């Protein structure tokens, strides 16, 4: 069974179209490409595997939210908690129906490492068309990515082939550019090295930002793509929790 849902909607609209499928033989990347979604979650419970149109991912935050919204919908229950095995790690995911519609899902992302940026950062900044703003870090919940504060994420027009090469050279998944506005972070996630030039919503990077800031944050993405999204992320200094609302089609 194959389902496409909208993960991490904002005010009931937008979100990232995400495929959820029972695990099956065949080319999973091709299945994702044919669905029109950027990511797919393939279920062989308790194992969940994630793919883009070009590669398998170690994990996928908004794919996790999508998968457990579908599982709750299939169960007919108002709420459930399950353990998911992905990328060599087991973690709990909770899903609950919302009175106003949609399904809210939270998962424990686990610890996030924060490190200084690598040598060769100029490759990334050049591909983004910006100078060094300072405050750049590498954050990793398992796969490293850059967190880059910028004055206006909407103004960026990356050179995606150049950015893909730079990210591969430095062993990075991609980069989250963001601007803080009180409790909200306006952000864009670029990951052409894994076949996703720009992500509508990236839950794991949102958790990384909360870990870096040391506080709760709501990350708004997708506006540049006409698919506004929102991810909630919180930290207690030891681990991070990430959540969002999934709309079933």
Short note summarizing the structure:
This protein is of the alpha+beta class and 249 residues long.
Relevant terms:
249 residues, 17-stranded mixed sheet, Diaminopimelate Epimerase, Chain A, domain 1, 41% strand, 21% helix, catalytic activity, 17 strands, globular, alpha+beta, Phenazine_PhzF-like
If you had to describe this structure to a student in words, what would you say it looks like?
With 249 residues, the chain is an alpha+beta fold. It has two domains: 109 residues, Diaminopimelate Epimerase, Chain A, domain 1, CATH 3.10.310; 133 residues, Diaminopimelate Epimerase, Chain A, domain 1 (Roll). The chain has five helices and 17 strands. β6 and β7 form a beta hairpin. The longest helix is centred in the first third of the chain and has 15 residues. The two termini are 14 Å apart. 47% of the residues are buried. The mean pLDDT is 95.
């Amino acid at each position: 069974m194959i389902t496409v849902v909208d993960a991490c909607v904002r005010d009931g609209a937008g979100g990232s179209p995400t495929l959820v499928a029972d695990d099956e033989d065949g080319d999973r990347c091709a299945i994702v490409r044919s669905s029109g979604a950027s990511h797919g979650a393939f279920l062989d419970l308790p194992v969940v595997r994630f793919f883009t149109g070009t590669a398998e991912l170690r994990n996928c935050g908004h794919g996790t939210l999508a998968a457990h919204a579908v599982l709750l919908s299939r169960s007919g229950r108002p709420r459930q908690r399950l353990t998911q095995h992905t990328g060599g790690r087991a973690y709990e995911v909770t899903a609950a129906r919302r009175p106003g519609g949609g399904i809210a899902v939270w998962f424990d992302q686990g610890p996030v490492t924060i490190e200084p940026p690598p040598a060769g950062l100029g490759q990334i900044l050049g591909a983004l068309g910006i100078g060094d703003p300072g405050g750049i870090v590498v954050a990793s919940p398992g796969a490293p990515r850059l967190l880059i504060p910028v004055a206006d994420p909407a103004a960026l027009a990356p050179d995606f082939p150049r950015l893909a090469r730079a990210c591969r050279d430095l062993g990075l998944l991609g980069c989250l550019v963001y601007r803080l506005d009180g409790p909200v972070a306006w952000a864009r996630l670029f990951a052409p090295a894994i076949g996703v030039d720009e992500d509508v919503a990236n839950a794991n990077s949102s958790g990384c930002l909360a870990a870096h800031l040391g506080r709760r944050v709501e990350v708004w993405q997708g506006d540049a793509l006409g698919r506004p999204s929102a991810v909630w992320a919180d930290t207690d200094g030891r681990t991070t929790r990430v959540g969002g609302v999934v709309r079933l089609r």
